[in-house]
Amino acid sequence: MNLRGAMMTDKMEVTPWTVSQELKDTDYDRIADEFGAKRLNDEMLERIRGFTGDLHPFLKYGIFFAHRDLDLILDDYGNGKRFYLYTGRGPSGKMHLGHLLPFLFTKWLQDKFNVDLIIQITDDEKYLFRDIDQEDISRYTDENILDILSLGFNPDRTHVLVDSQHSGLLYNNAIKVARYITSSSAKAVFGFTDSDNIGKFFFTSIQAVPAFLLSELKGEDIRCLIPYAIDQDPHFKLARDVIPKLGYYKPSSIISKFIPSLKGSGKMSSSDQNSGIYLDDDPKSVRKKLMKYAFSGGRDTAEEQRKYGANPDIDFAFNVYRLLEENYGKVQKIHEEYRSGNMLSGEMKSLAADKINEFLAVLRTNKERVSKDVSSYMFDPARFE
Ligand code: TYM
């Protein structure tokens, strides 16, 4: 097996800081195989449904497509043993819709299983990996936390762990992880070279800690399930090797594909405002971005579109609509209308713009509410039962 997350082919690169944007379903199959993750097959989906009653659309659509040891989480849960969820965000700018994907899914898991959730905010990470200063990161940290909490996580069971604010708790555990990671394995997994700063080599130890922190604090083994998109997998592949050496369970994970950028290629990046939909975009700019820049799976002319139909699967507007429309039947209907040529690209874009604007309006209202009691969500060991 090829250990190095960075080493795919020239076109297919997957590390926490680079993901080739033109990944197709077959590429994802290969990545899952090479990374040693399992596909979420029908049998596993049925097992999930057995506990949750229904399946989240991201599971039905294959957006969350792979896992590691999810079966062990479900075994424990089925036997009345608790588990907890862990996910995170590395603030470096405004959040876009892609960043929300794991959080939307995590919220569903939290609601269905009624479990604790640790949200790690790695406000040290991007300082080490990008050219950004600490003041800017600090500003984005506050903003991003509110954006995430505006999704409506259970306040009693949600614990926001900010690296710089909880360093006492993190550091002593991170060094336990660091002791087992050699620089050659960090190079192999992340593709570092001798000219990378040494903070980068250490950083993965910090991201590993929340995956066993609850077990450490409670003095009992509690399984941890981590939802994330494929770019984060190298961290957890390494963490799974090390954490059992500290006497804890290997963390489990559930892994999603990447949402491509608005323009269909290139990364969504805050330096290019038109590369994605950002959470603070106003209704007018959302509509304009979609109309002007969104990559379309439709035909060049309305006539051709009516005759041959579109390819919704590669269409940005359809894909985002599908993420936000909870009514599965409605999504199927729009897919068929668009595919068959009954619907034109402009109509698809307009429908997506309405859906996005409706979603962002709800987030804005919620954000105002959570901003009043954000401190009650902060990580505090005493809050865990
Ligand atoms: P960050 O801030 O780069 O991304 C936050 C989460 O969003 C996912 N993601 C995407 N998902 C779908 N489509 C996209 N275009 C897209 N872009 C980003 C990421 O996989 C991530 O889940 N190091 C992490 C922060 C972190 C973390 C964690 C993430 C700390 N602990 C535990 C997941 C789980 C980071 O910088 O994520």
Question: What do these coordinates show?
Answer:
The chain is α/β, with parallel strands linked by helices. The chain folds into two domains: 257 residues, HUPs (Rossmann fold, 3-Layer(aba) Sandwich); 88 residues, Tyrosyl-Transfer RNA Synthetase, CATH 1.10.240.10. The protein is 48% helix and 10% strand. Helix 10 packs across helix 12, helix 13 packs antiparallel against helix 17 and helix 15 crosses helix 17. The structure holds tryptophanyl-5'AMP. The site of tryptophanyl-5'AMP (TYM) has 23 residues, from strand 5, helix 5 and strand 8. Tryptophanyl-5'AMP binds next to strand 5, helix 5 and strand 8.
Unreliable spans = 1-11
Task: Write the CATH fold name of the largest domain.
Answer: Rossmann fold
- Broad CATH class of the largest domain: Alpha Beta
Q: Give the C-alpha Rg.
A: 21 Å
Structural classification = alpha/beta
What ligand molecules are bound, each kind once? tryptophanyl-5'AMP
Shape: globular
Number of strands: 9
Order of helices and strands: EEHEHHEHEHEHHEHHHHEHEHHHHH
Cα(first) to Cα(last) distance is 41 Å
For the sheet with most strands, the description reads: 7 strands, mixed
- Mean pLDDT across all residues, rounded? 92
